[in-house]
Design brief:
With 472 residues, this protein is of the alpha+beta class. The protein has helices at 2-7, 12-28, 57-65, 87-91, 100-106, 119-135, 152-161, 187-210, 222-229, 245-250, 263-271, 277-281, 285-292, 294-304, 333-354, 385-390, 399-413, 444-447, 449-456, and strands at residues 49-54, 74-78, 81-85, 98-99, 111-114, 139-142, 146-150, 175-176, 214-219, 237-239, 320-330, 357-367, 376-382, 422-433. The chain binds a DNA duplex (9 and 7 nucleotides) through residues 57, 77-81, 83, 97-99, 115-118, 121-122, 141-146, 259-265, 295-296, 315, 318-320, 322-326, 362, 374, 376-380, 424, 426, 463-464. Its EC number is 2.7.7.7.
Length: 472
DNA sequence: TGGGGTTAT
DNA sequence: ATAACCC
């Protein structure tokens, strides 16, 4: 996909068509075969995508840890919020992101467990992704509890195993959206049904091997798969056949329910008088492009019709590790340092277990302010190579230099001679590299991604330079 | 609102 | 470095 970004011809539609072709060639066989024969595969643009969505994930993990919680209304608490809860609790009126006090009023029997430490959730989350990767390596994570899998190839292979008289015996697994009739003479139907069978196998494997239940949605793209996965809710699955696509997308009550249309875009659209999916579908594309920019406008307009050509991008290992803590008030440098040290201890453990080395560290703060939605500030800098070397070696005095760096970043953001009031601190390790690519030598210049790519593409160049310690 | 993540500008 | 998006 990186290559597509850098070598596309610049025209949106052409890039898309070309991208689809190239993906199909890759999907059809070996990537190394790309140069021998570049022939477009049959069925070049109809995919089978599954969206897998775990039921109240954190609560499930807690119930597995402590089975006594299983038949009780359970909420997972972070600070003063119930961030998620099991279905027992939902029946009694507890909602996601509900204030703890309100939740207790609604449901005095509610059992609360603290979920501020994400370690066990993160570990279980990756076990799910890895299980799904056994089916097909093309798995994209969305948060800790959702995954997309591109089943196109698997479905093709299963169909090739079938005799022609077996095609008419293919059955659906789970629900069919809108109770639509299946047409076994329609190859698109057949492919989606096979997708639904694979989805059922995935859910079975998740339950048998990890003890987790969840929903799945099968459709021809990510948007539709995601929307349809939520139609029958706990622990069920639904397949969307093409004829019911418009029914699904128009069943949404508000444009903000379309994934990809977030807070800002919603506000902007509402200002234009657009609230329903139908409003958006029929709105002038020219005006939309002027208000939101051509890229966003064209993308969300397509989304409103249920069209989404974005590929399932394998997530692979994480791009960053971060730990954050929020609080009512932090107003001294000494306290900030203590909090940063705590975050750092957990982070160093995580980075050590990962094996790769972060080459950049970032400090993020949130200042107390009357009302500023999204008030985070950050400073980042490269991690000195001698510190990187010590990072996974069990040498725990990587703490001292890292704290020094972070406190410099801190003082660069916060004038400690003036009163301040912070409500959040976060430390992030990013720019992860497999091994010590920082070896000296004449070749190093050509092997450093930031320099190589920046020099002939422009796409990956750093527009902002990291703060360097020498600047202080 | 929490404690995470991603990509684009 | 920030802003948008996702959970």
């Amino acid at each position: 996909w990186v290559e597509l970004e850098e070598e596309g011809c610049g025209n949106e539609e052409d890039d898309e068509a070309w991208a689809m072709e190239l993906l199909d060639v890759g999907a059809a066989g070996s990537l190394q075969g790309v140069h021998d024969q570049v022939l477009p595969t049959q069925n070049s643009s109809t995919r089978v995508i599954v969206h897998v969505d775990l039921d109240c994930f954190y609560a499930q993990v807690e119930m597995i840890s402590n089975p006594e919680l299983k038949d009780k209304p359970l909420g997972v608490q972070q600070k003063y919020l119930v961030v998620t809860c099991n279905y027992e609790a939902r029946k009694l009126g507890v909602k996601k992101l509900m204030n703890v006090r309100v939740a207790k009023e609604k449901c005095p029997q509610l059992v609360l467990v603290n979920g501020e430490d994400l370690t066990r959730y993160r570990e279980m989350s990756y076990k799910v992704t890895e299980l799904l990767e056994e089916f097909s390596p093309v798995v994209e994570r969305l948060g800790f509890d959702e995954n997309f899998v591109d089943l196109t190839e698997m479905v093709e292979k299963r169909l090739q195993q079938l005799q022609s008289d077996e095609l008419s015996a293919v059955t659906v697994s789970g629900h069919v959206y809108n109770n639509q009739s299946i047409n076994l003479h329609d190859i698109l139907h057949i492919r989606l049904l096979v997708g639904s069978q694979i989805a059922a196998e995935m859910r079975e494997a998740m339950y048998n091997r990890l003890g987790l239940t969840g929903c799945a949605g099968v459709a021809s793209n990510k948007l539709l798969a995601k929307l349809v996965s939520g139609v029958f809710k706990p622990n069920q699955q639904t397949v969307l056949l093409p004829e019911s696509c418009q029914h699904l997308i128009r069943s949404l009550n508000h444009i903000k329910e379309i994934p990809g249309i977030g807070y800002k875009t919603t506000k902007c659209l509402e200002a234009l008088g657009i609230t329903s999916v139908h409003d958006l579908q029929t709105f002038s594309s020219k005006i939309l492009e002027k208000e939101l920019g051509i890229l966003v406008a064209q993308r969300i307009l397509k989304l409103s019709f249920g069209e989404d050509n974005s590929p399932v991008i394998p997530s692979g290992p994480p791009q960053s590790f971060s730990e954050e803590d929020s609080f009512k008030k932090c107003s001294s440098e000494v306290e900030a340092k203590k909090r940063i040290e705590e975050l750092l201890v957990s982070l160093l453990n995580r980075v050590c277990r990962d094996g790769r080395k972060p080459h950049t560290v970032k400090l993020i703060i949130r200042r107390y302010s009357s009302e500023k939605h999204y008030g985070r500030e950050s400073r980042q800098c490269p991690i000195p190579s001698h510190v990187i070397q010590k990072l996974g070696t069990g040498n725990y005095d990587v703490m001292t230099p890292m704290v020094d760096i972070l406190m410099k970043l801190f003082r660069n953001m916060v004038n400690v001679k003036m009163p301040f009031h912070l409500t959040l601190l976060s430390v992030c390790f990013c720019n992860l590299k497999a091994l010590n690519t920082a070896k000296k030598g004449p070749m190093d210049y050509y092997l450093t991604p930031s320099l190589t790519t920046a020099s002939h593409s422009g796409k990956r160049s750093f527009k902002m330079k990291d703060t360097h310690m020498e600047d202080f």
